[in-house]
Amino acid sequence: MARLSIEHLNKKYGDLTVVDDVTIDIADGEFLVLLGPSGCGKTTTLRMVAGFVPPSAGKLTIGTRDVTTLPPWKRNCGLVFQSYALFPHMTVAENVAFGLEMRKVSPADRGPRVAEALRLVQLAGFDERYPRQLSGGQQQRVALARALAMEPDVLLLDEPLSNLDAKLRQEVRVEIRDLQRKLGLTTIMVTHDQEEALTMADRLVVMEKGQVRQIGTQRELYEKPADRFVAGFIGRSAFLDGEIAAPGRFRTKGGLDIACGAATATGAATLALRPERIAVADEAAGCANRFEAKVEHASYLGALLDIHVSLSEHDRMLLQIPNRQGAAEPKPGETITIGWGQDAGLVYPRED
Ligand SMILES: Nc1ncnc2c1ncn2[C@@H]1O[C@H](COP(=O)(O)OP(=O)(O)OP(=O)(O)O)[C@@H](O)[C@H]1O
Ligand SMILES: [Mg+2]
């Protein structure tokens, strides 16, 4: 168990920088989730921490040890990958013991450590089975047991649940998190799944193009996205392009005049609104900003309705309204009144 510090980490392949000046401090026992689009450098970052990819620059510290140039087996990181990578010809116990054998742990010591790791992932008694005799979720737990048997200082999980179906994912998700808390393991997990990230993380890191865009709690990322990318990536946002004509006044490309407290510095800008901040029909009555909107498309999502509307030829946006029993569902072609307060939006420099 230890604190992990990643400082100014950089990775270049030829001329291409795939990890660009990444700095993240992870507290002892913290569960940090790395999120970002495909190819943004998540796996490369994890592999550098584990010692499988040498950094081009930067420093890695686990506890008080500078591990930047140490080989993987001296870093004591436990790794679990997307493909469980179990050896098919070895039993569960042999799979879990494999890393211990590599590290020359004596056979007498291996047995109890394997048993304890299997007990932790609730697979006691599965020792003699082969991977093909296990479900996907059980195989994933064997992979986790193999990492835990090493008694790692830091646990690194690279999309460990992506091979599982939705229901199993949720179960294993809870198991991993409980276990991580119980053992107080400093953990970094990579995932594509936002819900997974939001439910599991103590803090999240959003990466794009090799760079950290924002680090924060779920609430910080959702309510105060640092830039337009994060506003679109974490949860959903409606974006309106335009400019700030005067402090507090945002003018869209389509000519709508919007009262917006966040509009301070003048110039080309994008207004971002969370869909649930937009009120519809009677509920829009008291709002500082009110517009007639034409419904273009409506999707039924169970608890919510997604409504795409246009406010002008150039201004389109997404609303989400609760699906209330008996309430009329807006239909394409209908005109509805929508509104939001002047504190509802965030403003970012325009990226076009
Ligand atoms: N050995 C390599 N040689 C050259 N380029 C590489 C190498 N490994 C990774 N890359 C490139 O580095 C970038 C980051 O890759 P990485 O695997 O870290 O992305 P990722 O964020 O994990 O993506 P995904 O979500 O798809 O797993 C990609 O553009 C990838 O093509
Ligand atoms: Mg990856």
From TrEMBL:
Species assigned in the record: Bosea lathyri
Checking InterPro entries in the record gives:
AAA+_ATPase (IPR003593), ABC_SmlMolc_Importer (IPR050093), ABC_transporter-like_ATP-bd (IPR003439), ABC_transporter-like_CS (IPR017871), Mo/tungstate-bd_C_term_dom (IPR008995), P-loop_NTPase (IPR027417), Transp-assoc_OB_typ2 (IPR013611)
What is the membrane topology noted in the UniProt record heading this document?
Peripheral membrane protein
Which key words tag this protein in UniProt? ATP-binding, Nucleotide-binding, Transport
Q: Which GO terms describe its molecular function?
A: ABC-type transporter activity; ATP binding; ATP hydrolysis activity
Give the record's family classification.
Answer: Belongs to the ABC transporter superfamily.
Which SUPFAM superfamilies does the annotation name?
A: MOP-like, P-loop containing nucleoside triphosphate hydrolases
Lineage, top ranks: Bacteria, Pseudomonadati, Pseudomonadota, Alphaproteobacteria, Hyphomicrobiales
Quote the subcellular location field of this record: Cell inner membrane
- Boundaries of every ABC transporter domain copy: 4-234
Q: Which PROSITE patterns match?
A: ABC_TRANSPORTER_1 (PS00211), ABC_TRANSPORTER_2 (PS50893)
Cellular component terms (Gene Ontology): ATP-binding cassette (ABC) transporter complex
Gene3D superfamilies of this UniProt entry?
2.40.50.100, P-loop containing nucleotide triphosphate hydrolases
Name the chain's protein.
Answer: Putative spermidine/putrescine transport system ATP-binding protein
